[in-house]
Amino acid sequence: MEKKADIQSQHHKKQVHLFYCADCEDLARKVAAHSDLITLQSINWRNFDDGFPNLYINNAQEMRGQHVAFLAAFSSPGVIFEQLSVIYALPRLFVASFTLVLPFFPTGSFERMEEEGDVATAFTMARILSNIPISRGGPTSLVIYDIHALQERFYFGDHVLPLFETGIPLLKQRLHQLPDSDKVVCTKVREESVSGSGAAKVSAYVTHGVFPKRSWERFTRKSDGSGNAFAFFWITDSCPLTVKAIANKPPFEVLSLAGSIADALQI
Q1: Would you put residue 51 in left (φ > 0), alpha (ψ -120 to 50) or beta?
Q2: Domain covering 2-166+257-264, topology
Q3: Is the overall model pTM greater than 0.85, yes or no?
């Protein structure tokens, strides 16, 4: 009976064709390595002389009737337009379904107005993504990790189905791999305060290592300039430019979302 159940489970899984932006190539390859059901596809990311995108989706006709996904990274305003152009085009290729994986929702921390005149850019971005064309299979599935505020779910319209995932299981798994010792989890505290309270070692985790203007460098040393401020500083690969910047630089360690993304593509 178990063997029959396994066969039925495999039968219901989707063969997914995964496109990706240029910054996400490394992550896309890791996602594909997690499953034989994921096939990488490519896009020619070019520009005209005036700087506007000159894009081409390879194997476009072969995507008809297939399950298609796109792995995006809105790492700066300058790359959003070219990726949106592809995101809007893919569902129109008569695909069976379309999934957009946007690990980091960049405008999420500005989700509300504090005073008249503020522009809640998170709502603007949600409206843009809500207008992704419907594919033959229905609304677009939108996968986002650890969005700033859960109420942002209601910013999206009916043309997309937001799927909110989290990187916390990766942290728990990594903690179990550390040598046996008592652990205390603190949230939103200062490293000096924890160390001053007698902690033998202090480590930190954020799902999205944005770190604008190379601010990650502050965490490679203590405030007095000596040693590392943290034993470990874990981030995920949701922000690919940061991952490249902190490569082989202690105390940083990258926990990859690849396996979680591969699983999400089967939902």
Answers
A1: left
A2: Rossmann fold (3.40.50)
A3: yes
